């Protein structure tokens, strides 16, 4: 797995900083004055907006607004939705073994699946196809090994000039995958994602077959692109801008954890944006149900999945761990990427990455770890250190992060609060 935003090599003394010692956001440049790196095979710098525009407004009353440009939909939306199907997934088990989802979860959801089957049969009995319900699928906005994501355009019957957009993800059957496992896989992801109802989690609307018999998942469409593209274009985000996105993210994560679900693959590519600045967590392909509604204790998990820069250190150890702590760790890495435009390290594995090794040593010292120490507020630095605690039992929970002085005081835009 390769780094999607360049690995943090340390902040040099030439870093642009304001009078408070905080990193400044420059027009498309990173802290060392160079343009941010380009992810191979996705975005060319010529595709990044160069004309000056005000994407973030601070109002006199202390509130703020995001004015994000509508992302391109011609071919690739910075591989928007690409990681709905790409990235490191949990290992495939033999046919007689449970899926990567918690073993008994799919069985517990049998009633829900039967309801879905009944709904599907009801839909098939009516003259309603995917096209009739959600419009014609047109431009591709994501492409992976096992399917694509297209934008469906549904014309308003009362106004031919208006249309509703939907994201339609195909579930392609994998080579060698049995029909039974294929249906379990797509139904499991749909059961998790469709049960999430929160302003900062993507809304999943439907699961049905297209005219070719391929199962498709229909979701709300986010026209602002993804957080990765925004960070790449901006170099670094404004402090209040990053704090707003981070607080929205933590709210979504707290909600998921309260619902008994861990994401296991949080990263900027899986955080979609509306043009008004609302964050939406997407891609539950690696999602795990660690606690049923009637259970009080969480089930531990094991296995390595996700994208290397965001994977927590405990995932590299052959032991069970709390999946909630893994999500929180990834949120800390995401925040640092927003503030610096870089990754702190390539892999959080002791002895395998010199920058992670340096972090393990420097976090114990009074001077701290330089890339984190450039953050202006002490309360912010303390929370980030606690989020990125290599010992998961000491790591803050999503609820504790939100209750911290720094995050509780961070202002969220109206779109982020309401999800539009």
UniProtKB/TrEMBL annotation:
Family: Belongs to the protein kinase superfamily.
SUPFAM superfamilies in the cross-refs: Protein kinase-like (PK-like) (SSF56112)
Binding site for ATP: 169
Region (Disordered): 1-46
GO molecular function, one term: protein serine/threonine kinase activity
Residue ranges occupied by any Protein kinase domain in the UniProt entry: 135-407
Gene Ontology CC annotations of this record: cytosol
Extent of Polar residues compositional bias: 1-18
Record's keyword terms, sorted: ATP-binding, Kinase, Nucleotide-binding, Serine/threonine-protein kinase, Transferase
Protein name: non-specific serine/threonine protein kinase
EC class name: transferase
Enzyme Commission numbers on file: 2.7.11.1
GO biological processes: intracellular monoatomic cation homeostasis
Keyword Transcription regulation: no
Reaction(s) this enzyme catalyzes, per UniProt: L-threonyl-[protein] + ATP = O-phospho-L-threonyl-[protein] + ADP + H(+); L-seryl-[protein] + ATP = O-phospho-L-seryl-[protein] + ADP + H(+)
Entries under InterPro entries matching the protein: Kinase-like_dom_sf, Prot_kinase_dom, Protein_kinase_ATP_BS, Ser/Thr_kinase_AS
């Amino acid at each position: 797995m390769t780094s999607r935003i360049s690995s943090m090599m340390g902040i040099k003394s030439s870093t642009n900083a304001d009078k408070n010692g905080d990193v400044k956001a420059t027009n498309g440049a990173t802290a060392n004055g160079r343009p941010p790196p380009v992810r191979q095979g996705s975005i060319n710098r010529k595709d990044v907006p160069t004309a000056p525009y005000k994407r973030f407004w601070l109002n006199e009353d202390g509130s703020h607004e995001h004015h994000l440009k509508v992302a391109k939909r011609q071919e690739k939306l910075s591989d928007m939705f690409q990681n709905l199907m790409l990235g490191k997934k949990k290992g495939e088990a033999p046919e007689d073994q449970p899926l990567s989802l918690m073993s008994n979860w799919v069985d517990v959801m049998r009633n829900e699946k039967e309801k879905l089957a009944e709904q599907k049969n009801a839909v098939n009995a009516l003259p309603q196809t995917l096209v009739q319900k959600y419009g014609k699928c047109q431009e591709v906005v994501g492409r992976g090994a096992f399917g694509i994501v297209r934008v469906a355009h549904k014309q308003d019957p009362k106004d031919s000039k208006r249309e509703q957009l939907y994201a339609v993800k195909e579930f392609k059957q994998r080579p060698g995958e049995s029909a039974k496992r294929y249906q379990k896989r797509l139904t499991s992801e749909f059961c998790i994602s469709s049960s999430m109802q929160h302003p900062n989690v993507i809304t999943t609307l439907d699961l049905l077959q297209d005219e070719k018999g391929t199962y498709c998942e229909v979701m709300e469409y986010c026209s602002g692109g993804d957080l990765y593209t925004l960070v790449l274009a901006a170099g670094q985000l404004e402090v209040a801008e990053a704090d707003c996105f981070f607080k929205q993210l933590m709210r979504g994560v707290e909600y998921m954890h309260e619902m008994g679900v861990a994401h296991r693959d949080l990263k900027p590519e899986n955080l979609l944006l509306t043009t008004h600045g609302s964050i939406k967590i997407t891609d539950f392909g690696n999602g795990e149900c660690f606690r049923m509604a009637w259970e009080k204790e969480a089930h531990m998990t094991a296995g390595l999945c996700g994208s290397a820069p965001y994977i927590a250190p405990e995932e590299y150890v052959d032991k069970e761990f709390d999946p909630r702590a893994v999500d929180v760790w990834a949120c800390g890495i995401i925040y640092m990427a927003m503030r610096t435009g870089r990754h702190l390290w390539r892999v959080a594995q002791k002895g395998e990455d010199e920058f992670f090794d340096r972090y393990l040593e420097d976090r114990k010292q009074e001077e701290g770890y330089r890339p984190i120490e450039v953050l202006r507020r002490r309360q912010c630095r303390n929370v980030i250190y606690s989020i990125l605690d290599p010992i998961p039992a000491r790591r803050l929970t999503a609820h504790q992060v939100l209750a911290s002085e720094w995050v509780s005081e961070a202002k969220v835009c109206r779109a982020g609060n309401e999800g539009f």
